[in-house]
Design the sequence.
């Protein structure tokens, strides 16, 4: 269906190839998962399939890419639209119309299908993706998961033989991600569509994949069996980590397969109680953030309604909940980004009210890394950004740069911040905010676009910050990160706190937010592979 | 008035845009503040009644930009003067002595009411034209209008959509970036801060625009399935010539100083050329419509309601009616009754059109 023959891609001004001599053949009706670290060339690989690289992006492509017999050198993306549909990382910026139904019909209109066919296909597609109740909704009012489903449905309706998706679940909560993947599963199995998708959160997708392709520094492996690929890959989900630790063979990819093999492990662990790996933190009184009856109204809609929250000094607390539950708004209200319609917020040991302080005073007590870290970045190079941060926060010259070196895996200081990968941008924004050395650090969805390596560094950074007494409050969909770092988990739904408790209890008892290791070893409440490894070492 | 029972639907976008252009033409022909405020009022009224609930209403953004234009003009006039000699001195600013070679330029000095009024009226005209554009934007999103652009005009079409969605988005982006700026301990006020904000705001907006353009491309916008290269080029050539003609004609109509006599024929010629390119393009344009917009009598009413003020004010300015261009005296300008009535006609579509579609919240 899709063939790559000796394909190399080099962007203008880039020192090295983004893709290097790729030869690959993807058969019809397969769900192929592309796995690789950030910046390895995954997105480039996906975009060569419909010709956006190089027709739209610029750069040079050598070799040949053909899709359903059409050579992308001779066909522009718009001509390939009948064959390939591409779903971008952030669907909201790619909507061409304003309402769900129009968006689904748009592609078919440009193809010139007659209106009876369009009507029929619109109905079918809305049903297939469970969007019928949303058909008259304005796109901008949908939640992230709903938008992602509309984007996929809109492309699918046009009847392409191939669907290409770049990180379709990275912005979604676990339940919404499951919905999206279920729709994909259905069109692959029932309708024979070929699906190629790239995703960092392997724990969500790897068990849906028929084949896996590993990408590293522009080099692409052949089509691999998923279990075999997970043995070779540097990046793997926790369930594979557990399997590698215990030596299960063949490697289980789904929770169900792993549970079948886990009886012996559960027995071996039976006597020892789960214990966190890091026990260094000294958790102080619950007064670092005190929110009482917080109510926020945005655009005429009540987003938060009477939220009470008290966060202990030096702890790491995770806010979780579905897309649109009010997590970001709560962080924004604490950092005085949103006006309060009711209630009060006090932060820091001195209990200051951030809403009455000037921005300059406020940043000493509470720092927020927003969901789009690029909003914080203004300078034209990483070095200049760090210097500006020192100036903004009145820190000693070199503070931000030193922090960045500690957080990141090495970033070229001459690069423009917009050219960094998403993960690197987050690290830079975090360094900027930390140079104000705030007492309370708020992070909004920090793992979007992060690979496991970057996520591990982030986790270590947060743990060490907490050990030094900084209070960390983060909103995330990433249950694995929460399992690694959180002392406490607060779950929001519809603008209200529904659960608030110790991380282990909350995560282990929630069907939606339980991490993979917990699901495999229930009723025991282990959270991470490292915990299990520690316990096994003690037993041995 | 008996209540009209029309089925809720969105009107044809071309009707609303023609209405907006008509009203903008009218506004550009006068500097009478009463007429201009009336035009803005009509825009606000019609938008309040018939705005498409599925989109963010862009009119407030355009009104804000208009207000900024007026304020900026007044401040600059107070500082630098505008060559209008008046008698009513409002205040005297300390003036900066300039060397002889800079004769004719002044900084500071006396500020007269006449010069301020002239500047305010002139700026208000621009604000009213902006309000008309904003109203058209709110009533029919440019993305819907794009459907009626021939596929041969692919690149122009993309540019127009991206451009028109760019402006209203800019304000949202600016707000977000300014909010983020406070996270770095800055309050985002002051000139220097504004300068620092422009780069990230523009970058965000550009990135969004590129994303939209890439999405349109990969979803098959502007496909040329059954056309040959020559016919495509011919159609593109015709369409471009037509578009240039339309723009030049519009400019001629809107800018009184460019000679309005030339405006209309050029506009007609351009429209003919563009029309023929539409025909050439449409015969090869494979696009179809899911629930195509219909053109019924309400669309005609809308266009006529926009054309009436345009026609009346063009005639008024050519014949030099009293009060259409107020004198440069500090007095209440005369209000030409016929022109007021003509502008009020433009408010008719607020009632005589179908209600927009219902959108679930």
Sequence:
């Amino acid at each position: 269906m899709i063939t790559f023959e000796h394909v190399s891609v080099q962007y203008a001004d880039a020192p090295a190839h983004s893709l290097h001599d790729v030869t690959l053949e993807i058969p019809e009706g397969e769900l192929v998962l592309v796995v690789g670290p950030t910046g390895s060339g995954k997105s480039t690989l996906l975009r060569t399939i419909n010709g956006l690289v190089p027709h739209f992006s610029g750069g040079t492509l050598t070799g040949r890419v053909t899709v359903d017999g059409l050579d992308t050198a001779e066909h522009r993306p718009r001509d390939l639209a009948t064959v390939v549909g591409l779903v971008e990382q952030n669907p909201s910026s790619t909507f061409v119309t304003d309402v769900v139904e129009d968006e689904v019909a748009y592609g078919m209109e440009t193809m010139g299908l007659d209106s009876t066919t369009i009507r029929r296909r619109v109905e079918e597609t809305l049903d297939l993706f469970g969007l019928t109740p949303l058909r008259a909704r304005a796109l901008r009012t949908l939640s992230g998961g709903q938008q992602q489903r509309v984007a996929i449905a809109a492309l699918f309706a046009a009847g392409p033989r191939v669907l290409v998706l770049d990180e379709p679940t990275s912005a979604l909560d676990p339940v919404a991600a499951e919905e999206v993947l279920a729709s994909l599963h259905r069109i692959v199995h029932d309708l024979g569509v070929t699906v190629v998708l790239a995703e960092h959160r392997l724990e969500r997708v790897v068990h849906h994949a028929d084949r896996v392709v590993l990408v590293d520094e522009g080099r692409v492996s052949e089509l691999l069996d998923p279990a075999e690929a997970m043995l070779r890959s540097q990046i793997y989900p926790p369930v594979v980590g557990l399997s590698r630790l215990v030596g299960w063979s063949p490697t289980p990819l789904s929770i169900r397969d792993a549970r079948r093999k886990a009886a012996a492990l559960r027995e071996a662990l039976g006597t020892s109680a789960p214990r966190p790996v890091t026990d260094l933190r000294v958790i102080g009184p619950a007064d670092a953030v005190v929110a009482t009856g917080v109510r926020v109204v945005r655009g005429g809609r009540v987003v938060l309604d009477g939220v009470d929250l008290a966060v202990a000094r030096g702890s790491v607390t995770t806010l979780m909940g579905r897309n649109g539950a009010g997590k970001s708004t709560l962080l924004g209200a604490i950092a005085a980004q949103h006006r309060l319609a009711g209630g009060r917020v006090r932060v820091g040991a001195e209990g200051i009210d951030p809403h009455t302080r000037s921005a300059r005073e406020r940043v000493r007590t509470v720092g927020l890394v927003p969901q789009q870290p690029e909003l914080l970045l203004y300078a034209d190079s990483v070095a200049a950004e760090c210097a500006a941060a020192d100036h903004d926060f009145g820190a000693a010259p070199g503070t931000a740069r030193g922090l960045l070196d500690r957080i990141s895996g090495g970033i070229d200081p001459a690069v423009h911040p917009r050219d960094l990968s998403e993960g690197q941008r987050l690290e830079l924004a975090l360094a900027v905010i930390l140079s104000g050395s705030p007492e309370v650090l708020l992070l909004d969805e920090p793992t979007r676009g992060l690979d496991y390596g970057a996520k591990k560094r982030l986790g270590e950074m947060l743990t060490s910050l907490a050990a030094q007494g900084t209070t960390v409050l983060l909103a995330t969909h990433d249950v694995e990160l929460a399992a690694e770092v959180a002392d406490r988990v607060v779950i929001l739904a519809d603008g209200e706190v529904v659960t608030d408790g110790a991380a282990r209890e909350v995560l282990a008892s929630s069907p939606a937010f339980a991490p993979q290791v917990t699901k495999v070893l229930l009723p025991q409440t282990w959270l991470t592979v490292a915990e299990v490894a520690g316990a096994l070492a003690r037993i041995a | 008035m008996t209540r009209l029972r029309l089925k809720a639907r969105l009107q044809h976008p071309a009707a609303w845009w023609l209405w907006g252009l008509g009203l903008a033409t009218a506004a550009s022909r006068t500097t009478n503040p009463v007429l201009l405020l009336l035009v803005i009022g009509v825009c606000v009224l019609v938008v309040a009644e018939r705005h498409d609930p599925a989109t963010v209403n862009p009119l407030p953004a355009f009104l804000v930009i208009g207000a900024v234009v007026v304020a900026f003009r007044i401040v600059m006039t107070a500082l630098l003067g505008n060559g209008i000699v008046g008698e009513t001195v409002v205040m005297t600013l300390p003036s900066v002595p300039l060397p002889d070679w800079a004769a004719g330029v002044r900084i500071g000095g006396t500020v007269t009411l006449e010069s301020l009024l002239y500047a305010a009226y002139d700026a208000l005209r621009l604000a009213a034209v902006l309000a008309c554009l904003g109203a058209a934007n709110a009533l029919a999103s440019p993305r819907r209008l794009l459907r009626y652009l021939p596929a041969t005009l692919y690149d122009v079409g993309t540019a127009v959509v991206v451009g028109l969605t760019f402006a209203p988005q800019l304000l949202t982006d600016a707000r977000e970036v300014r909010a983020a700026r406070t996270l770095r301990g800055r309050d985002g006020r002051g000139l220097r801060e504004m300068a620092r904000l422009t780069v990230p705001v523009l970058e965000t907006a550009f990135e969004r625009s590129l994303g939209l353009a890439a999405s349109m491309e990969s979803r098959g916008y502007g496909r040329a399935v059954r056309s040959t290269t020559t016919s495509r080029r011919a159609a593109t050539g015709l369409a471009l010539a037509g578009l240039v003609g339309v723009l030049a004609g519009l400019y001629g109509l809107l800018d009184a100083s460019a000679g309005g006599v030339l405006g209309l024929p050029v506009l007609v010629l351009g429209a003919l050329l563009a029309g023929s390119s539409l025909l050439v393009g449409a015969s090869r344009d494979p696009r179809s419509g899911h629930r195509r917009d219909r053109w019924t009598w309400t669309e005609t009413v809308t266009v006529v309601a926009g054309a009436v003020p345009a026609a009346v004010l063009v005639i008024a300015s050519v014949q030099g009616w009293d009060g259409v261009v107020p004198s440069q005296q500090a007095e209440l300008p005369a209000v030409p009754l016929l022109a007021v009535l003509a502008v009020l006609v433009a408010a008719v579509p607020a009632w005589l059109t179908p209600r927009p579609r219902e959108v679930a919240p």
Remarks:
- Residues 163 and 175 of chain B are 19 Å apart (CA to CA).
